[in-house]
Design a protein that fits this description.
single chain, 1 helix, rod-shaped
């Protein structure tokens, strides 16, 4: 009986984790996009800074 209860808890936990992943997916994609854009602009800023230091 305890084994069946644990199996039910594990199934419920897996379902909850899956639901949470689906809910957070848009936020993670948005964060990835923002990071890519900021990284690109940051790289350009660093290159510009290097050019100004070399002059």
């Amino acid at each position: 009986m305890s084994s069946e209860r644990n199996k039910g808890y594990l199934t419920m936990a897996a379902g909850a984790a899956g639901a949470l992943a689906l809910l957070l997916f848009p936020a993670s994609v948005l964060t990835l996009g923002v990071g890519a854009v900021l990284g690109y602009h940051g790289r350009a800023w660093v290159e510009e800074l290097e050019r100004s230091v070399k002059q």
